Amino acid sequence: MHNGKTIIVTGVASGIGAETCKVLKSQGATVIGVDRNETDIADQFFKADLSDPSSIDALIDTLPAGADGLANVAGVPPTAPAEAVMKVNLIGLRRLTVGLITKLADNASIANLASLAGFGWASAIEQNKAALALDFDSDIAGFCAENGLDQPGGRSYFLSKESLVIWTMQNRWTWRDRGINMNCISPGPVDTPILKDFLETLGERAEEDMKVMDRPGTPRDIAPVVSFALGAGANWLRGANITSDGGMSSHILCGMHDL
Fold first, then answer.
1. Separation CA 1–CA 24 (nearest Å)
2. Integer Cα distance of 11 and 74 in angstroms
3. What's CA 28's distance to the chain center, in Å?
4. How far apart are CA 229 and CA 183, in angstroms?
5. Could you give the residue ranges of the DSSP H alpha helices within 179-229?
6. Residue 79 in 3-state DSSP?
């Protein structure tokens, strides 16, 4: 499926990133891994901090040209400080992606790991527009305080994922002249090192959601979907949000519309 391809995977040291690396390698890809924690799982590894613009820029300069895909899997949980959540999950991801466009091969694919937490983007349009206007020169801490993102409840995480879904849709055709497509994958609750943090932050809301599921997902459920989004079979998917969530988004929609 990916024979002869080179694919960059961020967040490669653990969880979905590590499993995505394994799947891609098993399908013939050469994987360039990126993480703030060192690992030997990838064919090549580059250490970077996606909350730091200088680290991102140095990574862009260092990564070899010609990659056929970029999997933006790196992220921090809702228990992290709100400013860090916004920087890593949204602002840093965008800076890295845009900075790598000229280094990607023609017909490359970009897969962004969003979340079921981004499901409600349509009910917070103005807040998402404001979030999408942020960059590393913005007063990110001030934005978080003004919007209550530093309060309990994980709003920073939800907003970062909502904005990522929107940004993916907005850029559905941005690099179409080079054949580059971009989509996102929205997992539901996944049994990774951050699941405990997620449940701790969301409390009763998460517990109620989990009761209707047969089980939480695993990285093995999500990684093949990321691999598909990076493959030729997904070439005509542009700006799509693939919900790999055990049916949770369908459950929510049926409840919303009395179905």
1. 9
2. 4
3. 23
4. 7
5. 195-202, 204-211, 219-229
6. coil
Taking the complete model, does pTM exceed 0.85, yes or no?
yes
Which residue, 184, 224, 190, is CA-closest to 26?
224
Q: Let me know: does 200 contact 77? Beta carbons within 8 Å.
A: no
**Would you kindly state where each structural domain of the chain is located, as residue ranges?**
6-256
CATH class of segment(s) 6-256: alpha beta
Q: Which tokens is 251 given?
A: 């459950």
Taking the C-alpha atoms of residue 99 and residue 110, their distance in angstroms, rounded to an integer, is 13
| 178/101 Cα distance (integer angstroms) | 10
**pLDDT digit of tens for each residue in the chain (259 aa)?**
899 999 999 999 999 999 999 999 999 999 999 999 999 999 999 999 999 999 999 999 999 999 999 999 999 999 899 999 999 999 999 999 999 999 999 999 999 999 999 999 999 999 999 999 999 999 999 999 999 999 888 899 999 999 999 999 999 999 999 999 999 999 998 887 667 777 776 666 666 667 788 888 999 999 999 999 999 999 999 999 999 999 999 999 999 999 9
End-to-end CA distance of the chain, in Å?
Answer: 39
- Please tell me the total number of residues recorded for the chain in this structure: 259
How far is residue 44 from each of residues 12, 25, 62, 227, measured CA to CA in Å? 11, 12, 12, 18
Output phi, psi for 128, to 5 deg. Answer: -70, -40
Report the sign of the C-alpha dihedral through residues 121, 122, 124, 128, in that order: positive
On whether the CB atoms of residues 132 and 167 are closer than 8 A, the answer is yes
